């Protein structure tokens, strides 16, 4: 019931919870991970060319770990490795949430 009531609420990032826009076969994958505090969650989204049926089909990604307390300013690239995926209850459709583990370059 809570999610159904939340359908009309606008998120701070500028999109609506239930995406009724034609995505032309593409999907949004929201990569989610725990940051360097071990408490806070972070995420970033990317567009993929079409629906994904297995987590092994998802590409690894990266981000600057110096802003999330996971790296110093030199060699601050952190790799996101997809571990699990779930249907996105906020955007709906074929969009997915991707839970990731993080790795620093050695």
From TrEMBL:
Record-level Gene Ontology MF annotations: ATP binding; glutamine synthetase activity
Compartments (UniProt record): Cytoplasm
GS beta-grasp domain boundaries: 27-106
Protein origin, superkingdom: Eukaryota
GO terms classed as biological process: glutamine biosynthetic process
UniProt keyword list: ATP-binding, Cytoplasm, Ligase, Nucleotide-binding
Any one of the GO CC terms: cytoplasm
EC number: 6.3.1.2
Coarse class of the protein's main subcellular location: cytoplasm
Family: Belongs to the glutamine synthetase family.
Protein name: glutamine synthetase
């Amino acid at each position: 019931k809570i999610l159904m009531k939340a359908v009309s609420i606008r998120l701070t990032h500028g999109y609506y919870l239930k995406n009724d826009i034609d995505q032309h076969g593409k999907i949004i994958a929201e990569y989610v991970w725990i940051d360097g505090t071990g408490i806070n969650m972070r995420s970033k989204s990317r567009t993929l060319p079409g629906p994904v049926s297995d987590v092994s089909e998802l590409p690894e990604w990266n981000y600057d770990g110096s802003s999330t307390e996971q790296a110093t300013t030199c060699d601050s690239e952190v790799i996101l490795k997809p571990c699990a995926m779930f249907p996105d209850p906020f955007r709906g459709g074929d969009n997915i949430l991707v839970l990731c583990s993080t790795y620093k370059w050695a």
